[in-house]
Specification:
Layout lengths: L2 E10 L4 E9 L4 E8 L3 H16 L7 H10 L7 H22 L3 H4 L7 E6 L9 H13 L4 E4 L11 H18 L4 E5 L6 H11 L6 E3 L7 H10 L4 E3 L10 H6 L4 E2 L9 H13 L3 E2 L7 H12 L7 E3 L12 E2 L4 E2 L4 E3 L9 E2 L1 H4 L9 H10 L4
Helix pairs in contact: 1-3, 2-3, 5-6, 7-8, 10-11
Keywords: Lyase
InterPro entries: DgoD-like, Enolase-like_C_sf, Enolase-like_N, Enolase_C-like, Mandelate_racemase_C, Mandelate_racemase_N_dom
Pfam families: MR_MLE_C, MR_MLE_N
């Protein structure tokens, strides 16, 4: 079997573009992969055009390790976000083809499952008026849908610093959310890498009474010593890693013992097997894995393949029950959270277990997506 070519399909929303890639073969099997880009979609598409001609076309889709090696190292330059995302979508699609050809789910090819269900946490649910009352109501809605965990960034426009008035307001938002969800629902705090170590430590102490399940990306991701400084001074679990795009670059993070949970994005770190390898290394450092997952249903399906066979897998992020829920229709067989358990059930379907509906995808053309404008929308809802 050989790869004859690829086709790309961009599903647009105002704040993000989802890039779906179909890999076609000479035996009629087609696999699909997905990644989410913020402001770099055209760059990704350009890279994929060149990579298709240079590395992908004519390759054996079963020889995944060799194809990834050539894409990562064959062009000599360092592989950043664009290259690793391009590798990821092709790699996912090849696993999809391999699973379909053999009639088994991808998790079976990665060693077999260690669980039948994967706990989910909700994100994208708090795009509402930024008041305690509105957040309380929205958080209740999350729990009513069956989720046992959710994440929130309550910190407004804070950057490096957060004033006392804004800190008190953030505390009032979290107090309202905790009241709405009760003591047993996990509450993750997102900081989006915005704060100095001293500010992050101070905020963490303010939030401690509300029992956060983790403190996510408290400082910018480039300086791991700054992250270590925070980890040494707070008692909350630290989560980070969504903006690290090569598993080799996690080495220093593991050595520093600064993170309790790592959050690689399967769509940005080179795909399914790269994530599984990283999870295995994390396991040797007694670190859990909770992948970043703010894409669509193919990316969710790919992340679940990793989850099913990974002993140190904690939980999976899920966006599309709340933000951009209408785009779920572009994927047939989209994974869904069981409201009775708050979990995804692991699928036995061959490959990734999903199919791209090209006609439905065409209903959502590529946009000039701007994450900062979407985030800005939250801030404009803040009371004066």
């Amino acid at each position: 079997m050989r790869i004859t070519g690829i086709s790309t399909h961009v599903v647009g929303t105002p704040w993000r573009n989802l890039t779906y890639v179909q890999v076609h073969t000479d035996e009629g099997l087609t696999g699909v992969g997905e990644t989410r880009m913020l402001g770099r979609t055209d760059a990704l598409l350009g890279y994929l055009r060149e990579a298709s001609a240079n590395h992908i076309e004519g390759s054996d889709p079963f020889a995944i390790e060799d194809l990834v090696r050539r894409m990562k190292y064959g062009d000599y330059g360092r592989a950043g976000e664009i290259v690793m995302s391009g590798i990821a979508v092709i790699e996912m699609a090849c696993w999809d083809i391999k699973g379909k050809a053999l009639g088994v789910p991808v998790w079976q090819l990665l060693g077999g499952k260690v669980t039948d269900r994967v706990k989910a946490y909700a994100n994208g649910w708090y795009t509402t008026e930024r008041t305690p009352e509105a957040y309380h109501k929205a958080a209740q809605g999350v729990v009513e849908r069956g989720y046992r965990a959710l994440k929130i960034d309550p910190f407004g426009t804070g950057h490096f610093e957060l004033g006392q008035e804004e800190t008190r307001y953030a505390v009032s938002l979290i107090e309202a959310v905790r009241d709405a969800i009760g003591p047993d629902t996990e509450l993750m705090l997102e900081m989006h890498g915005r704060f100095s170590p001293s500010t992050a430590v101070r905020i963490a102490r303010e939030m401690a009474p509300f029992k956060p399940a983790w403190l996510e990306e408290p400082v910018p991701p480039e300086n791991l010593k700054a992250l270590s400084k925070v980890a040494e001074k707070v008692d909350l679990p630290i989560a980070t890693g969504e903006r690290i795009h090569d598993r080799i670059e996690f080495r220093e993070l593991f050595e520093s013992q600064a993170a309790d949970i790592i959050q690689p994005d399967v769509g940005h770190i080179g795909g399914i097997l790269e994530t599984r390898k990283l999870a295995a290394t994390a396991e040797t450092h007694y670190t859990l894995i909770a992948p970043h997952n703010v894409g669509g249903s193919v990316l969710t399906a790919a992340s679940l393949q990793v989850a099913g066979c990974t002993p140190n897998f904690k939980i999976l992020e899920h966006f599309n029950d709340f933000a951009d829920a209408d785009i779920k229709k572009v994927v047939k067989g989209a994974p869904a959270v069981d409201p009775a358990t708050g979990c995804f059930e692991l699928s036995d379907a061959p490959g990734l277990g999903v199919e791209l509906d090209v006609d439905a995808a065409a209903e959502f053309p590529q946009q000039q997506a701007r994450f900062d404008l979407w985030a800005d929308g939250w801030e404009k809802r803040q009371p004066k």
